[in-house]
Each structure stands twice: as structure tokens, then as C-alpha cells.
Amino acid sequence: MRTQKLDCLVIGGGPGGATLALHLAQRGIGVALIDHGRAHYSGPFETVLASTKSTWQRMGLLETVKQGLAEDPLRHGAIWGSNELQWRQDEEAGLLLRRGVFDTALRATARSAGAEVYEACRAERGLRGWQLVSESGETILLQPTLLAYATGRAALPGLPKNQPVGPETTAVTVLGGPAPDDRGSAVVEAVRNGWIWTHVPDEGEASAAVLVDRELLKDRKAEDVIEEMFADASGPANRLRDWRVAHANDATMWNRGVAADCLLLGDAAATIDPLASQGVEKAVSAAEHASVCIVAALEHPEWWGRLRALHSRWEHGLQAAHSRSANAFYEVESRFAAEPFWQRRQVSAPDPTQLAGGQVLRRLATVQTARVLMRHGPRIIEVDGAVNEVTGEELARISRVPVAAVLGLFQEPVTLANAVSLAGKDPSLFVLTPHEVHEAIVQLHMRGWLIP
Ligand SMILES: Cc1cc2nc3c(=O)[nH]c(=O)nc-3n(C[C@H](O)[C@H](O)[C@H](O)COP(=O)(O)OP(=O)(O)OC[C@H]3O[C@@H](n4cnc5c(N)ncnc54)[C@H](O)[C@@H]3O)c2cc1C
Q1: Mean pLDDT of the chain
Q2: At what angle do helices 434-446 and 416-423 cross, to 10 degrees?
Q3: Residue of minimum CA distance from atom 9 in ligand 1
Q4: Residue 94 Cβ contacting ligand 1 at under 6 Å
Q5: Same domain, 208 and 356
Q6: Measured between alpha carbons, how far is residue 82 from residues 86, 102, 276, 336, 338 in Å?
Q7: What's the domain range around 158?
Q8: Domain termination site, one of 309, 342, 375
Q9: Residue 427 domain-assigned?
Q10: DSSP characters for 372-418?
Q11: Are residues 107 and 140 both part of a single domain?
Q12: Bigger pLDDT: 97 vs 301
């Protein structure tokens, strides 16, 4: 049996894991990537927003994975908040991803950059390392210094259990024959029991992702629930013929927190509502952030626990931002406000404006200023910030605002308005606008670091 020592082993070769392996290999890190080849995609293709293109261009990915990518030729529309079909106007076309082809191309890119890529392989963890049998039948013992999991939504032994942060949701993928007039369109439609995203390409079968509460599928056959939802719809889903259920996926929003000895990224760390169409973009950006953390951990092994926590906060921050925009979108749909699916989602986020200027705030006793880790371009550096001594949570900046300096305004309890005006006299804060300082105080309040 061959034994191979390496810097980092990445388990899971979807967009998150393959991009992480690519970034690490490009930085000269010894990395191996294992994918068991049993990925379960949400449908024949997924979409990414036009804004993703510039990120991928910068990473050199647009060209290398072009077999799995195409300009999205479909006309996008929504029946949401009213019975009218509204076509999206004047927006740059996004990209259609042929998942599977796209993921394989991404892994090939990582391999050509120098990563060892093992496909259709299962690795078993033993006392001496990770044992796997390669495609050629060779048994290899991998002994990595660091470990990253990019295994998507899969529940795996040894990883923390996922903690739902949204209603338990199932996405059922349906394939069928579309009406000829619907060709060339992609329509998202709200119905009483959920929403349906129907893609009708110019040729071939149409696919519909049907998002529904798991609760509803407990006592009823999926086909019956879907038939009812299609009958409720007025867009292309209503006109699908001879459809069949292809498969069902979990689509609940959840996060996993920090794992004991490995870094979690992409869907393995935190999932977002499929309504965003940004899961792949999140996984690819997470890989970039994770690669910076892994390089830092190889240089400073004593930081590994803090770096895993730093990356976890990054994932959760992005999840929270997506959750706010999904909530705003769900709130637009008032026709079904009394239905359980919509009631579960129309949860208004805490309104930051509830914090009035005259509100007196003080610093939580367990929050202390300290040196904390922060990403600075391709590196992680230690800077002045603050840490919650109970949770271990570290924070250096909120946007451009240094947290230590803001907390310094709260030596004594002070009103929000006074703290903002005091900031104008603080050398590290006066270059910022009062709005930025105000926002940072609101964020610290929402995090529970500043309390009434
Ligand atoms: C219904 C639905 C629709 C969606 N639509 C979109 C969309 O239109 N656009 C979009 O951007 N996102 C969409 N998403 C989200 C997107 O699919 C995910 O966010 C994205 O795939 C996450 O990438 P990842 O690399 O983290 O995980 P995954 O893509 O899940 O990759 C995980 C990889 O790990 C491998 N693996 C798992 N376990 C093991 C193991 N034990 N050993 C080895 N390998 C393993 C799997 O084979 C797989 O290749 C949708 C999600 C759902 C549920």
C-alpha cells in the first residue's frame, strides 16, 4: 500500500470542494480531492446569476469549465404577488450549469493545476490516515495535515448535526413534456402550497423544481400533492404533460457550526434557500475564503481552531444575508398569506430601526477587546478587535468599521445618538460616515454584544 503525506485532504468534489482543491494547488499546497461520484443534483441544470460571471472570469473558471456552462437562453419570468406573469426586463443573461458535466470539468481543472483528484472513490478513515482504493485498484493511505469537508447536504458520521434555520422544505424534481408555446422560458410561480420553478428549454423535456413543506408530504403521495399544485398554477407547470417525479432533495436552510477537527465549506457548512439561485456561487466563493484559511493554518497550526470558526462565521454571514433577501421576496406574496407554507416563511427579520437614537446601550460584560483573526486579501492577519469570551466568537470589522474602536465608545452606557457623535472625535472612526458607525452599532446590538 502506498502512503502519501499531504497538506490538505478535501472530501467532496462539487463546486465547493473542487474550487478549494484548485485554489490550494495553485498556491503550491499539496492537496488531494476525493469525490465518491454519487452526487444528487437538483435537476438537469441549475442557473447562476449574471453577476457571478465576473467572479468566475477573475478565477479563470469561465473558460475552463465551458463544457458545463452556457449563456442562459431562456426568458425569465415570475407569477409572484399577483396573477400576472411578469417577464424580467433588461437583465443580462445568467448562466445555465449542466451539473455533473460542470462539476467534472471543475475537478479536471483542479487536477491540471496539480491537485491529486480521486473520482468514484470512497475513503475510509482509520487510525493512521485515510485509506482509499483508486480507480486503477491501487490502495493508498493518505495522511493529511488538514482536512476539509465539502460534501454538500449529506449527513456524515463525525460531522456536527445540521441545525435548521428555516422551515423543513423538500424540493421535488419533475420532468415532463411542455406546451409548445412555453418553449424558451423559465418561470417561478407561487401557489398555495409552495412554489414551482419550471425550466422549458427550446428542445427536450421541461423540468420543474417543486418546493413544498416536508410536513405536507408526510401523509400524502408526492404525486398527489404536485398534481394539486400544478392545477393551482397558471404558468408552464400547469401545462406539463406526462410528467414524472425524477427525485426529491432536502431544501431546508440549516447550518452546522464548527466541526471538531475539519473545516466545513459550501453546503456542508450552511445552506441557503434555492430561491436565491446562488448556492453554487456561494460554494465557489466559500472555497476562495477557505483556501486562505487553510494556507494560514499551515503557517500557524496554533490558529486552526480559530480559523475554522472564522470560516464558519463567514458562511453564516452569507447565509444570513441570503435569508434576508429570501424573506423580502416571500413577503411580496400576499395572495396566500393565510396558507401554512407562506406563514412559515413570512417571518419578518428583526427591524434594526427599532433601535431608537435615544436608546441607552452598554457593552456585554463577556465581550473584551483582543487581537483577532481577519482576512486581508490572500492572507489572514491578527488585528485589534473583540472576542466574546463565552462563545469564542471573534470580530475585527463590520464593513469598514473597526469593532474595537466602536466598543471603545461604550466604556460607560451611552445613547446610540451620542455614541455616533462621539465617533466623530475618535481618530480611528472620524473618517467614516455617521451612517457606517450607526450601522455597526446596530449590528453589534443584533449580535447581542451591545445590550440595553
Ligand atoms: C432544489 C434546488 C435547486 C437549486 N438550484 C440552484 C440554482 O439554480 N443555482 C444555484 O447556484 N444553486 C442552486 N441550488 C443549490 C446548489 O445546488 C448547492 O448550493 C451547491 O451544489 C453546493 O455546492 P457544494 O460543493 O457545497 O456541494 P454539492 O454540490 O452538494 O457537492 C458535494 C459533493 O460531495 C460529494 N460527496 C458527498 N459525500 C461524499 C463522501 N462521503 N465522500 C466523497 N464524496 C462525497 C458528492 O458526490 C458531491 O460531488 C439548488 C439547490 C436545491 C436543493
Answers
A1: 92
A2: 130
A3: 277
A4: no
A5: no
A6: 9, 36, 20, 10, 15
A7: 2-42+99-164+254-342
A8: 342
A9: yes
A10: EEEEETTEEEEEEEEEETTT--EE-EETTEEHHHHHHTTSS-EEHHH
A11: yes
A12: 301
Does the CB atom of residue 68 touch ligand 1 within 6 A? no
> What's the sign of the alpha-carbon dihedral 266, 267, 273, 276?
positive
Residue 279: CB within 6 Å of ligand 1?
yes
Domain total in the chain: 3
Q: For ligand 1, is residue 48 a contact (CB within 6 Å)?
A: yes
Residue pLDDT, tens place only, 215-231: 999 999 999 999 999 99
Q: Are residues 221 and 137 part of one domain?
A: no
Q: What would the pLDDT profile of 291-345 be if each residue is shown by its tens digit?
A: 999 999 999 999 999 999 999 999 998 998 888 888 889 999 999 999 999 999 9
For the chain, helix (H) and strand (E) counts, in that order, are: 12, 27
| Smallest CA separation from ligand 1 atom 46, residue | 39
Distance of CA 103 from the midpoint of ligand 1 (Å): 10
User: Where does the pLDDT of residue 350 fall: very low under 50, low under 70, confident under 90, or very high at 90 and above?
Assistant: low
Centre of ligand 1 to C-alpha 152, Å, is 5
In a domain, 434, yes or no: yes
Ligand 1 pocket mutation, candidates 11, 42, 102, criterion most atoms within 8 A of CB: 42
- Distance, in Å, from the CA atom of 292 to the CA atom of 426, rounded to the nearest integer, reads 32
Same domain, 391 and 426: yes
Ligand 1 centre to CA of 263 (Å) is 17
Residues 139 and 288 in one domain: yes
**Residue 276 pLDDT grade (very low, low, confident, very high; cuts 50, 70, 90):** confident
18 CB under 6 A from ligand 1? no
User: Which atom of ligand 1 is least distant from the CA of 268?
Assistant: 26
83 part of a folded domain: no
Q: Is 176 in the pocket of ligand 1 (CB under 6 A)?
A: no
- Asked if residues 441 and 447 have their Cβ atoms less than 8 Å apart, the reply is no
Q: Please give the distance, rounded to the nearest whole angstrom, from the Cα atom of residue 307 to the centre of ligand 1.
A: 23
Domain boundary among 229, 250, 271: 250
Cα-Cα-Cα-Cα dihedral sign, residues 80, 82, 85, 86: negative
pTM: predicted TM-score of the whole model, two decimal places: 0.92
Spacing, Cα 39 to ligand 1 middle (Å): 7
Find the CATH number of the domain harbouring 234. Answer: 3.30.70
Question: Can you tell me which atom of ligand 1 is nearest the CA of 121?
Answer: 43
